[in-house]
TrEMBL record:
GO CC terms of this entry: cytosol
Biased composition (Polar residues): 385-395
Basic and acidic residues bias (residue ranges): 374-383
The species this protein was found in: Mytilus galloprovincialis (Mediterranean mussel)
Signal peptide range in chain numbering: none
Protein name according to UniProt: Ubiquitin-like protease family profile domain-containing protein
Taxonomic lineage of the native organism: Eukaryota, Metazoa, Spiralia, Lophotrochozoa, Mollusca
Disordered as annotated region, ranges: 1-20, 367-395
InterPro entries to which the protein is assigned, alphabetical: Papain-like_cys_pep_sf, RNR_small_fam
GO terms, biological process: deoxyribonucleotide biosynthetic process
Record-level Gene Ontology MF annotations: ribonucleoside-diphosphate reductase activity, thioredoxin disulfide as acceptor
Length: 562
């Protein structure tokens, strides 16, 4: 028996009028000013009274703010003042937003509101949302330079573009939605329900960026208004709802999100959290890593610089089962992280973060999908039963464990400098540098050696066996058309001993051993043994093993720029 009902698309409905929404008679936006006086450290309080006939549309409501930037002495900033607002400036103004309906709290995010707003914006908007983004002063920071706080002469073009809106004491006006869970649901709020909001200000060091050592700039909010969207239903709908309320309860299903923060101490390269969730297991998990200085607020750090910190393992286990089926194991140093990148598609198909941006900025490390949720439907609640389970999260990293001072201290007899990638220039010979593959605005990932002897071709030593152009094109430009390099890896990808390999290479090279002889100290097969060996080398107990090294150990090449 055929149970299918015949139908056709609207393009063939030539004799039927289009449906009309007659349930809503009028839609308007009413501005409500704060009930308290606007001051530097006080929260903004809004009290929206109950409406007699109109319903509140929270999803279409928005916050409007006027502000300007001031110096420490209270005067307006000049044209060339080195200060600008951080990205997504409207949302970064407030550290916490409280919302109550009929004096019942429905939104309490703690002091993590800016991060929720930024993550929502990053994962749920695209290039087509230009009006929504620009009105909140969302100007993308330059990939790889999010922590470049030099407004006038730095490489962060997004920071510079934002500074144009506030220079010379200009008044900036912004408007955008509140990123509260209850504001994301589509159902209208019944008449007769009052709404209260309290917005706590962020620290100036959090919402502003400046490379000045004595930065004390501040934001002055001149005016604020909450624009409530009111929709008035027709009389029939009002009467029907009134009757139904006598026997039933109005339902407002929406997806709630919770933030959990944890600190990983410096020097620790693993993190395990048991009993990760209190109560129900969520449908999705977003993991972001940010430096503690930026998280707390610093004029010289972007709070939204979600870095990878060379995380090489991320696992989530619920009742002993891994989600996804295999833990994510990105390798940022080796440019292998597509599995982690593709998790962004669990939010929407057109997330405006390219693979190159993901590598350069590492904005979000992953988005683990625990239970099925169609892409683009995060606002729709999953009404299936959610179990209370034992959940455990695990993160491990491989970092360049030595900082520049430690490297220079170990090589003080060789008078070698340890520098960032963007500090490298072609030097006067002879000269040797230990160079990190990250720019100065980043925490540092991997150490390499650039050696420029008095005579002969330059030398590039990389314990991971990568070519200089794999990191930066400028590395090849500094080396010139002909140079020596290491063709094979001697260090395991998940190891953090790159600094030790560089120290050993520099010491031995300054001791008149050849490039080839130093490479012969290590195997290209048993890389774990190389790690144990290099630690002994650093302690002065040098042993030599020459097994398994490729015959192409040293090659002089012509740099073709590819």
């Amino acid at each position: 028996m055929n149970h299918l009902e015949e139908n056709h698309e609207d393009e063939l409905s030539l004799f039927s009028p289009p449906p009309a929404n007659t349930g809503i008679q009028r839609r308007e936006w009413i501005e409500f000013r704060p009930t308290n006086q606007i001051s530097a450290d006080a929260p903004l309080d809004f009290s929206i009274p109950s409406q007699s006939a109109a319903y509140m549309d929270l999803k279409r409501s928005s916050l409007k703010v006027k502000l300007r930037l001031l110096k420490a002495d209270g005067t307006s900033v000049a044209k060339d003042t080195n200060v600008a607002l951080v990205n997504l400036s409207l949302q970064a103004l407030f550290s916490e937003v409280e919302c109550s309906l009929q004096q019942t709290p429905v939104a309490q995010m703690g002091s993590n509101y800016p991060f929720k707003a930024y993550i929502d914006t990053l994962l749920e908007t695209g290039a087509s949302d230009k009006v929504l983004l620009d009105s909140q002063l969302f100007k993308r920071d330059t990939a790889g330079h999010l922590d470049d706080a030099n407004v006038q002469g730095g490489a962060n073009q997004g920071l510079y573009r934002r500074s144009l809106y506030t220079r010379e004491g200009r008044i900036l006006e912004m408007e955008g939605p509140l990123h509260l869970d209850v504001f994301r649901q589509h159902r209208l709020l019944l008449n007769g329900i009052p709404l209260t909001l309290k917005l706590w200000p962020s620290k100036n060091a959090f919402r502003l960026m400046s490379s000045d050592d004595d930065a004390a700039y501040r934001v002055q909010i001149l005016d604020a208004a909450f624009k409530v969207c009111l929709q008035t239903p027709n009389a029939g709908v009002l009467m029907a709802h009134s009757k139904l309320l006598g026997d039933a309860t109005a339902m407002y299903p929406f997806v709630t999100s919770h933030f959990k923060t944890a600190s990983v101490s410096k020097g620790e390269y693993g993190f395990i959290e048991n009993n990760l969730f209190q109560g129900d297991v969520p449908s999705q998990l977003i993991v972001a890593l940010v430096s503690s200085e930026a998280f707390s607020g610093s004029y010289k750090r972007s709070p939204f610089n979600f870095q990878g910190f060379d995380c090489n393992f991320l696992g989530l286990y619920v009742d002993g089962q891994s989600y996804p089926s295999q833990p994510l194991q990105p390798n940022f140093a080796g440019r292998n992280y597509v599995d982690a990148y593709r998790t962004l598609a669990t939010f929407r198909d057109d997330v405006d973060v390219s693979l190159l941006d993901y590598a350069a900025e590492r904005r979000l490390s992953t988005g683990n999908q625990i239970r099925d949720a169609p892409a683009g439907e995060r606002d729709r609640p999953d009404v299936r039963q959610v179990s209370q389970s034992d959940a455990r999260g695990s993160i491990s990293t491989r970092l360049a464990t030595m900082n520049n001072r430690e490297v220079e201290r170990a090589l003080r007899d060789q008078h070698v400098r340890a520098i960032c990638a963007d500090e490298l220039v072609r030097p006067q010979r002879p000269q040797t540098y230990v160079v990190n593959t990250d720019p100065c605005s980043r925490p540092g990932t991997h150490w390499t050696v650039f050696r420029f002897p008095l005579q002969g071709p330059p030398e590039f030593f990389d314990s991971l066996g990568n070519r200089p152009g794999d990191y930066h094109r400028r590395f090849e430009e500094v080396l010139g058309p002909t140079y020596l390099y290491t063709p094979d890896a001697v260090q395991p990808e998940d190891s953090n001993t790159c600094g030790a390999y560089c120290i050993h290479f520099v010491r031995e090279r300054h001791g008149s051993r050849s490039f080839q002889e130093i490479l012969n100290d290590f195997s290209t097969v048993d890389l774990r043994d190389n790690d144990r060996k290099v630690k002994k080398f650093i302690r002065g107990r040098i042993g030599t093993t020459r097994r398994g090294w490729s015959a192409k150990a040293v090659r002089t090449i012509a740099n073709d720029g590819k």
